[in-house]
Amino acid sequence: MTMKDDTRREEPGQQILHGVGVSPGRVIAPLVHMAPAVTEPPVGDPLTGDPDAAVDRLKAAALAVRAELTERASRARSESAAEVLKATALMAGDRALTKNAGKLVTTQQLSPERALWQAATAYAEQMRAMGGYMAERAADIEDVRARIVAQLRGEDAPGVPQRREPFVLAAEDLAPADTAVLDPDVVLALVTESGGPQSHTAILARNLGLPAVVAAPGVLELSGGQPVFVDGAAGTVLTAPGPEQEEAVAGWRRASEQLASFDGSGQLADGTTVPLLANVGAGDDARAAAEAGAQGVGLLRTEFCFLGRDTEPSVAEQAEAYAEVLAAFEGRKVVVRTLDAGADKPLPFLTDATEPNPALGVRGYRTDSTTPGVLSRQLEAIAAAAQQTTADVWVMAPMIATVAEAVRFQDLAHEAGLRTCGVMVETPAAALTAEQILDRVDFVSLGTNDLTQYTMAADRMLGSLAELNSPWQPAVLRMVECVTRGAASATRSTGTPKNVGVCGEAAADPALAVVLVGLGVDTLSMSARSLAAVAAVLRTVDTAQTRRLAELALGATGPQEARDAVRAELPALAELGL
Ligand code: PEP
Ligand code: MG
Binding residues for phosphoenolpyruvate, per the UniProt record (predicted)? Predict the structure, then answer.
């Protein structure tokens, strides 16, 4: 993740936009805007022409939407994306919907667009009134409604435009539903007007290895169809790219090929090992990470098993899903994080949607006090999955703020038969008491996304606070230092090594990774796509240099200064186009 960088300037006739680079890479492709929301056809919009022909058009539009979604499901990059698309396709093909709309055309002489809109709205309202799972599907019906109306009008469907030719996607920000179905062979880069370094857009871009720039004001005003140059490391978007930018793209391709030779081991120039692990969700993610050379899993986000559910998955179902992940890492370490529901990841059966301040509310480990039992059953499922493999399973709790919480979590995990227990350090409270926490538990993992948000009191999803919300902030680096010092003391007093990992997005920034190692972090965990770049840069520095660069960053007055000072000392970054 990189901040604003003014090294690239525009030539006459070019326009440059500066944002926050959140995923490296350089590409040139035409800019395509996210399709706007479909507008409601006017109330009473009258039918023109033959009613039977209008009903036929309506049915044909619904079938075309179904066919398009089914076809996209067959090309989806993950099982979960395919499921989302298949479910939406089924709704588009629902005969009851077109039948009701058809009746409105023939009996009330409404245009097919208005008739479909009205029929689908009634359907969505009924579902909403039923509550629970049905209520959640109401938004899907509204999505289908927009797609069929767009089809009838001959407009682009809302959301990510479907094109065969590669393009750069410009958007205000991307919602999880948009990102789930994005095809990285066609969408070559993401540029957004808002969104922060830890937003869904940023995390998705890093997972897919797509260059991305967020919080870039002016992106939405650029006219669509024109070629743009995106530099995901510098955080810039340039119009009218010329030979210089073409050379930069070619250089990035060469560097990517060089990085492809990553052998999976993390070490410094002096041979000091720094295990490089992956952040993963479901089984397909884990297999991809193993293939990319990850030495283990530093963060298994178990939310994948719960999201989109209105009831808790059974212990057997959970155990099966976790076992699939563990199977990809036989004999290696897998750190399983228990459910982190709440804030940006709400769950209907666990979190209270009316909380005024969800990021400061009942989220993560805290849900155990409001809905006891879910956590214990999850630990039981993790233990059952662990029994089926030789993976070295560690468990940790998210959103810990006190020693007592850490100890209670450990007790629950031990009761379930899980031996290696730790907690995430995501709150300043946990960072400041890391020594006392580590006197009791086995390890900690720094969740720098949330630790930054809570240290800086800046919502991680807000593009307007992107500068504050940087893990390069000296205050955040001091928190990290406090944790590694606490761990060293706890290691001495207990006589047992206490591992400090980082599993927030900070670990995926090669320059920051060097600083984190210099601050005393033992292991780094990141999206699999970032492993090779981090490994390549770590190999160019020795332990003494990592310490010196950590001092440099700690002594800076702000994130930009810290980052610039460190980057200036790491020539490998420029050589690799990072
Ligand atoms: C973090 O906060 O850094 C983290 C890894 O957790 P998440 O991004 O899932 O909140
Ligand atoms: Mg977190």
Answer: 301, 337, 449-450, 460
